[in-house]
Structure formats: structure tokens, C-alpha cells
Amino acid sequence: MARIRRAKSEGAAPGKKIWKVGKYIRLSRDDGNIVSESVVNQDKILNDEIPSFFEDGCYEVVDTYVDDGTSGTTDLERQDFQRMVQDMKSGRIDCIIVKNLSRAFRNSANQGRFLEEFIPLYNTRFISLYQPRIDTFLDPEIVHSLEVSITGFMNEQYAYKTSADVRRTFKHKRENGEFIGAFAPYGYAKDPENKNALVIDEDAAQVVRDIFNWFLSEGMSKAGIARRLNGYGIPNPAAYKRSRGFRYENPHCKYNDGLWSPTTVSRILQDPLYIGVMRQGRQKVISYKVHKRAAVPESEWFIVENAVPAVIDRECFQAAQTLHRRDTRAAPGKGAVYLFSGLIRCADCKKSMSRHTARGIVYYQCRTHRDKSKAKCAKHSIRLDALERAVLAAVQTQIEFVDSLPEIIDEINCAPAAGTKFFRLDALLAQKAKELEKATEVLDSLYMDWKNGEITQEQYRRMKGRLEKQARQLEETILRIQNERQVMAQGAEAGNPCLTAFLERRSIDALSRGFLVELVSAVYIHKDKSIEIEFNFSDQYRRIAERIENGQTSSA
Q1: Domain spanning 19-160, CATH class
Q2: Upstream peptide bond of 132 is cis (omega within 30 degrees of 0)
Q3: Residue 336: its pLDDT value, please?
Q4: How far apart are CA 526 and CA 258, in angstroms?
Q5: Which helix (H) or strand (E) holds 68?
Q6: Binning pLDDT at 50, 70 and 90, where does residue 484 land?
């Protein structure tokens, strides 16, 4: 927890504003051991400089937000930055101070959006000590200056170059069979003397050997293996890493309950790493700005034989692959999709329920209870025929409700468009129009600066492109605000999709796959066999309700 320092406010004169200050500090992965950019040093610099921006007693340091070892190219990865933004929105802080812009941003688009949109919108003061020195309270227009724009551009170029250098280094290491992941795969550990080499973790490796042995020698299914591992109290790979002190979360698993699943068992049985084959580069980051990952064709993977010590022998692995292919069974009907596929979930653990047949009767059962551990979730089960009847009845009830909405629709359309949200949109629209006007003025004057020899042609070209992009973004923002305002002004119509989707099926007497996919997001099964349906149009209904509430509030 960051240390909170509060200035004494007793000396503040009556009526003086007391600024609620939040310090933001970031140490990038790229900084390495640069002492001047260390968290401790950044904090000291901020503490030394803060008093110079305020009168005695007119501020208090509310919190310190630290993202240690985090890239600045995207805001979403910075947890404390997001916490700071939420505190700014809630009014907990109204002043942010950073050492320089590169500590806060490496993405010029995020920098522009934050300084030019969020800061004014939430009436917050932003201070940067160096490169350049900024105080939006003393000089609100500085965020539109060429110096700030150029600084953002240069920081972004630095991030791009750093990213390119890292990618080249990673490519070289992958080609040589060196491991570059943050966490060693299950069954292995990083070599203490070489972080790019793997050694066998004997405790986990023995579990891997047991899985192959049970699958081949005892003929156990993947679900049976998962149940045995859970019965023995053996943590799954993610939980095992956390037990070793690693801050690891499985990105492919929403519910990190520490239990084995048939999918995890199957993944281990098919991974050639356990015979020494290193496969890397199966995914790639889309760009240095967009940190989402995309799949890479197998032809472009980096595959190196004998890159790590083997946990099992090749004969055992090949036998497992043969058995795995034979064990993959097609569902009855082959290409046909079951009516409720992907829609049925346990109301308690929220996981998908699996379909089973016993004595000719089809059931849906909780996967956690059936396949993992009976102690982790109660028995949730429902017959398919009962499920169909319950869902059909619930849908018919919903249709009857929607069919009785003409009075509500009239109320929506008669409600005055003068709610709080209207005022906010109008203010935001005026603000963006003013920003667009200023950007256009700067763009017009930029040409004369070039002709008069105040800037070079290259500087003119680069800054012109930046300003034109900014103007386009503002135009798009203005259009979105105008569209949202128009939608609010129109209210709800009888042809609203969230209404017509149900009304078109007034006479429904049987369920179909197409109907369910269109209207139903999920069906939750409770322990008492009651059901709860989450419809796809719940957000539209919420907005209709808000529209009614806003209309009633504004007319009161």
C-alpha cells in the first residue's frame, strides 16, 4: 500500500481551495536499473517539488499511484493508472502530478485524449515537472501547444523503437531454442543460472508422468484423470505456480479454482514440450500500441528439437497421441448443434453444464460437480424435456410483457429531453467544437510559420499530419456525441429491436436454435431445478428505463 502524506490544512485561509493531490509514478520494463527513474527517486522528486505549486496549507496528498515494471504504451495494463482515473472521476482527487509526460504516457493518442478530454471533463489539474513543464490550472491551453504534441510524438517513437528491438531479440532467442516466457511451463522451472533455460521441476514432472501412465496403462479418461488429481488434492498448473510464490493467473480460465479439468489434462497429453520440443511464437502481439494477441500460422512457429530435457520418452508420447485421436468421438448427428449448446450454465459456479444421457433420458449436469469435485459445487441437474418446457414458458411470459408496453412507449416518447445526461452531452459537444476550432486555427497558422522560416519543412509536415489527425478524431467524436443526443431525443419507438424481437414471435409454441441464439444470452440452472434466463436485450431495457426515469426527473 502506498504511503499517504497529507499536508496540514489549518493554515489555509477561509474559502481557499484545498487541492486533493494524487502522485503518479511508473517504472517501465524498459528502464532496467536506471536509478534516476526508480520508483523511490521519482517519489522523492515529486515530494520535493509539490509545495512549489501550492500556497501553504492549500493541498493534501491523497494517494500515490505506482505502476512498477509496466509498459506505458497502453493505459489498460496499468492497474494503478486505472485506479487513479477512477479516483479522479469520483472526485477523490482533483490534481495529478507526474515527473514528466513519458512517465504518464508513451502513446500520443492516449496522451492527447487524457489531457484534452478527461482533464477538462472532470475539472482536474494536471502537473508535469519536466519535459515540458505543465500546469493546466495556471495555463489550461498548454495541452494544445506544439511542444506537448511533439513530446508525445517523440515518446511514442521511442516506444516503437524499443518494441522493435525487443522483437528482434526475442526472435533470435526463439530460433536458438531459448525460453522467453515469464513463467516456466508446468513440469519445468527456470534455470537459476540462466533465465532463458529450463530445468525439470521434479514435483510437477512426476504429475505429468502419472497423467501419461494413467491414460495409457490404466485406460482412464481425461475426465477420470482430472477427478483423480482433484481427489488427491493436487493443485492444477495455475494454482501450483501460485503456491510457489508466482503472481500467475491463467489467461484462458475465468475461474481459477485450483481444480483440474479434462481440458487441462488433454493439453498436457498433447504438448511435445515433454519430449524436449520447444514451440514458441504461436501468438504475437498485434502492435506496440495494441497489446492484444493474435494467433500465428503453424508454418511461422519457432520449433526447436531437444531444446529442454524430456520428462517422458517419445514412444510414450506417440502412443498417447494415437489413443487421443481414437478417443475423440463425434456427437450424435455429427454437424448438428444441440438446441441449448453454449447456453446452459450452473447458477452457482457459473460454468457451462454438460449434456449426458442415462436410460434414454437426456440431462444437463453441473460440470464442476460431475467432473471436478463434489465439494466445490452442489449437484445441479435438469432433464432436457423439463428444461425445454421451462424456457418456453419463460419466453412466452416475456412476450406477453413486451406486448403490454404501448403505454410505456408513449411515456418514453412524451418525456422531455432535458435530463442530466442531455446537459452533459451538450456541454461535451460545445467543448469538442471549441477544440476543433482551435486545432483548425493552429493548422492554418502552421503554414505561415513554415513560410516565414520559423520551422523547417520536415517539422511542418510532421506537425501538420499530427494536427490533421487530431482534427479528424475530434470530428468523429463530435459525430458520435450528436448521434447519441439524437437517439436520446427520439426516445423509444414501437419498432425498437429489443421490443420487435419478441413481438415478432407472439404465437411461438416451440423453441428453435435460431430463436434462442438471437434472444437468449444464458440460461442458469439452480439447485432446486428452477431456471433464470438472461436475455440479449437486457441493456436496451435498462436504457429504456433510464430514459423514463430521466424524463420523469426533468419534468418534476
Answers
A1: alpha beta
A2: yes
A3: 41
A4: 23
A5: strand 59-68
A6: low
Q: Three cell numbers at 69?
A: 515494471
End-to-end CA distance of the chain: 46
Q: Do domains 19-160 and 188-327 have the same CATH topology?
A: no
The identity of residue 50, as a single letter, is I
Confidence of residue 73 (pLDDT cuts 50, 70, 90): very low
Cα–chain center distance at 235? 26
Assess whether pLDDT exceeds 80 at residue 96: yes
- Measured CA to CA in angstroms, residue 271 lies from 226, 304, 327 at distances of 17, 14, 17
Q: Which three cell numbers stand for residue 508?
A: 411461438
**pLDDT band for position 89 (cuts 50, 70, 90):** very high
The amino acid at residue 245 is G
CB atoms within 10 A of CB 218: 10
* Confidence bin at 510 (pLDDT 50/70/90): confident
C-alpha Rg value of the chain to the nearest Å: 30
Per-residue pLDDT tens over the stretch 254-289 = 566 788 988 899 999 999 999 988 887 766 655 545
10 Å CB burial of residue 19 (0-12, 13-18, 19+) is: buried
- Which residue from 428, 541, 548 is spatially nearest to 488, judged by alpha carbons? 548
Q: Are 260 and 208 in contact (CB under 8 A)?
A: no
- The one-character DSSP state at 215 is H
Angle CA(274)–CA(278)–CA(280) in degrees, nearest 5? 130
Grid cell 517519489 is found at 43
- In CATH terms, the fold of domain 188-327 is Hect, E3 ligase catalytic domain fold (3.90.1750)
Task: Provide CB contacts within 8 A for 43, sequence distance 6+.
Answer: 23, 25, 64
Contact yes or no for 203/189 (Cβ under 8 A): no
64: number of Cβ within 10 Å = 22
